[in-house]
């Protein structure tokens, strides 16, 4: 682990601890008044989570505003043959959301697939107070960081109203809490990969999204319409672990299969040899009796 990655992960932990300490004990809507903070955070810890709703259909009728201020439907980014990477956060997040988008941009660069050509990226702000101008500024920064032509047509930065944001977050299992004292949100870190039809296919937690795992997830979400035959062959060597959000090499499964096959072969060989020895012994006894 290099120094930059270590600093980012350490900062992430500190940011999460600060958010948890500052947030109220029970989740409230943006307009509600603040109650005295509880000294124990079990209610908050239960409210802030990232659940896996694999297979759930994202409501494509939701409307947001894109970075130009135009009203858009979520369905505009689905319905074709391209899978979609979805991220939730907010643009004025002091630390965690920026680290998350930095990690995503870093993971996208080694991919042979291009944003806007083989897949889409949709970033949605969970803060209804944020304006399209903030989304536009974020988009400029990450397009420059990504550095590939055509990505402006495939990476979308959206803002919206609280009902739509909440409905989307509830569908994907992204549970967050707003703290009116600090004006910040306590939330988890992670990204999602959706099918072209808008169904949740894969979750990646934390701030580390290996390019290999993203490639596999995009291929699976798109029913293997993208990727080379080598990529598709590699998919048989890895399996997705939903508890970690990672693809792991199936070496143990392969060893178990080989072990079972070896035992079956050995058992068959011993059975055949025993039968042959018994037959030979029986023939020898019959010969001795006849003489």
Query: Any idea of the CATH topology of the domain at 3-16 and 47-229?
Result: Glutaredoxin
Report the biggest beta sheet as strand number plus sense, adding barrel if it closes: 5 strands, mixed
In total, the number of strands is: 13
Taking pLDDT < 50 over at least 5 consecutive residues as the criterion, the unreliable ranges are 1-42, 230-238
What is the percent of helical residues?
40-55%
- Secondary-structure-based class equals alpha+beta
Task: Identify the overall geometry.
Answer: elongated
User: Strands of the biggest beta sheet: in what spatial order?
Assistant: 6-5-4-10-11
| Fraction in beta strands | 15-25%
**Quick one: CATH class of the domain at 3-16 and 47-229?**
Alpha Beta
On the 0 to 100 scale, the average pLDDT is: 78
From the 3D coordinates, which CATH architecture of the domain at 3-16 and 47-229 would you assign? 3-Layer(aba) Sandwich
Element string (H = helix, E = strand): HHEEEEHEHEHEEEEEHHEEH
CATH superfamily of the domain at 3-16 and 47-229: Glutaredoxin
Radius of gyration: 27 Å
Number of helices: 8
* Termini Cα gap: 82 Å
Chain oligomer state:
single chain
